[in-house]
Design brief:
The protein has about 260 residues and is of the alpha/beta class. It has 12 helices and 9 strands.
Length: about 260
Amino acid sequence: MHTLILREGGVPFVAPSVKEEAVDGTGTALRFIEQMEAGAYDMVICMTGVGLTVLRDTCATIMPIDRLTAALQRATIVSRGPKPVGPLRALGVQVDLIIPEPNTWREIVSAVAERQERRIAVQEYGRLNTPLHTALQELGATVEPVALYRWELPDDLQPLRQAVARIAGCGCDVVLFTSSVQLENLLTIARTMGLEPDVRKALRDQLVVGSIGPVMNDALTAEGIPPDVIPRHPKMWALVKAAAEEAAGVIAAKVA
């Protein structure tokens, strides 16, 4: 993100707001592999490259990595967009279905509805995707979540506190969000600093808010902060480019 903003002529301040923390030692990974080996799943939906990397690295400490590859090859493999594809192919696993943009749970459900597999494991991202599970169950599927990591606040909160202060004081022009948990954590830290009302007002009425994808858009809107810049493609480069092109007009409209 830092490089992309520089490339568009901006002055970046990047504040890490999320830490990805592996969970449960080797237990979850081992149970998942044993279930796949037993033929418990017709389909595995891979939500993130991060989760697959955690799975691979965990398995490497307790078994030959070929065992993981063989287990995954027993099921239909669905990739939520392009990010899980790299780790899967590095393992030698065939990807049967890549979910198209904007890569949300809705596109996953639409794709699964056209297929016969109904015993489904979901390699989750940092939290359970309850709407996805519910929609798959309404198709008649049994759904098993596989949570390999969780989202936490970063160990060093100082950059995030600085971001809160900048936003509250309108010390920046544009704020870009790529994940709903970023917004949640920003507001959490703002609350602890006594600056949540100022942050909300600045985001709503004074600054340019950029957002990637329907889930992020919905999260902002639910908090009363409708996004100002939504790129055509849910990619970071597209978000930065759209913000560079549209920011001046948005600011002019907000201060008018």
